Amino acid sequence: RDRDVVLAAVAQNGMVLEFADESLARDRDVVLAAVAQNGMALEFTDDSLARAHDVVLAAVGQDVDAVAWADESLLRDRDFLISLFPTVADFENAIQWGHESVQLDHQVVLAAVQANGMALQFVDESFWNDREIVLAAVAEDGMALEFADVSLKRDRVYHFRNDRLRLLAKGCSRKALRAGARRERHSQLCADYADERLKRDREIVLAAIASNGLSSQYADESLWRDREIFLAAVARDGDGWAWRHADESLKRDREVVLAAVTQNGGALLDADESLKRDREVVLAAVTQHGGALEAADESLNRDREVVLTAVAQHGDALEYADPELKADLDVVMAAVQQNGHALEFTDVTLKRDRGVVLAAVAQNGAALKFADKSLKRDREFALAAVARNRRALWRVALWASYSTSASSRRPPAAR
Description:
Blueprint: H1 3-12, H2 28-37, H3 53-62, H4 78-87, H5 106-115, H6 131-140, E1 153-158, H7 160-169, H8 174-178, E2 187-192, H9 202-211, H10 227-236, H11 241-244, H12 254-263, H13 279-288, H14 304-313, H15 329-338, H16 354-363, H17 373-376, H18 379-388, H19 393-408
Antiparallel strand pairs: 1-2
Helix pairs in contact: 1-2, 2-3, 3-4, 4-5, 5-6, 6-9, 9-10, 10-12, 12-13, 13-14, 14-15, 15-16, 16-18
C-alpha cells in the first residue's frame, strides 16, 4: 500500500501492479508508470483507468497487445480509435479491433487508412467504392492499390490476440476475459476489395505510384501506355517492374528511357537499339549500374569515359569493355579497386603488373588466381600480396603446394 514503494516497483516491472493495493490500481501516476514499463500491466488497472484515453494509449504504445485490456467502451469510442490508429500503424487490421458500429464511421475508416493504407482490405464493404477512402489509402501506401479490385479475395488468419480483440468488439467484458472466456481459435476472414474502376482512375493511380512505384502493377493495363503515369512509375520503381511491363512505344521514348535507366541501369537491356547508342542515356545507365555496359552499343564500349564510369561503379563491367581499354592502366586500376575479381578481364600484359595485381588482391584476396604465372613464382610478390590481404594466404599456399607436387613428378636428370 506504500505509494512510493509501489511506484519504484512498477517503474522496474510494470506487471507487479497486480500485487499492489486496489487503491493504487486507481492511482493515475502509478498506473501510467506501470504501463510505460510494460503495457500489459493495463490488465491490473482499475476499470476507471482502463477507460482513460491517455492511460490506454500509453499502454498500447509500449505493447500493442495491451489494447485487449482496454475497457470495451473505448472500442465504441470514435475519438479514441482515431487517436489509436497512428499508435498501431504497423497493424493493418486495427480497424477491426473497434466495435462493429464504429467500423461504419467514415472518419474512423479514413483515419485507419491514413495511418496504414493496407487497412483498405479490412474496412467494411460499403467503403470499398469510396473514392476518398481509396485515395487516402494509396497515398499512404501505394501497394494498397492491389485491393482496388472487386474480384480479389484473400483469406486472412489471425492469432489469439486478434480473437480476443474481436470478442471485446462484440461486447465481451474484461472480467469475462479474465475468467477464462477467451476462445483460442483462429478467425478466417475473407475480404473483398475496392471497385475495379478505381484502378483506371488516373488520380488514384498517380497517388499510389507517388507512395510506391511498384503499385503500378495493380493499375489497369490501359494506363501502362500513359506517358505521365509511366514516368512517375519508373522514377519510383527501383525494382524495374514498371519498365519490364512498359508498352513498346515507351521503350523508344528517349525521356522515358533516360528516367528508367537513371533509376535502374539494367533497363538499358530492353531499350530501343537506337538509344543504346545514345551516349547520355548509356552514361546515365552505367552510372546507376556499371553492368549496363553489356547492353551498350559497341561504339560506346570503346568510349573511355563511359567505360571508366562503368567500372568505377561495377568493376566486373570491364568484361564488356573494348580490348584496347582492358589494357588501359587507369581503366583497369579503377576496375580492380572496385572489385578485385575484375583482374580476370584485364589484358594479359597487366596481369603481370605488380601494382595492378596488388591493388586487386587488396580488394579481394581470391583475385590472386588471375595473376600471371611469373608472379606466382615471385616470393617477394607473394609476401607483398599477403601483406595487402591475409585472405590471399590460402592462394599462395595453393601455389606452393602445386609447385612442390609438380617438381616431385619431374623425371630425374640424366647422368
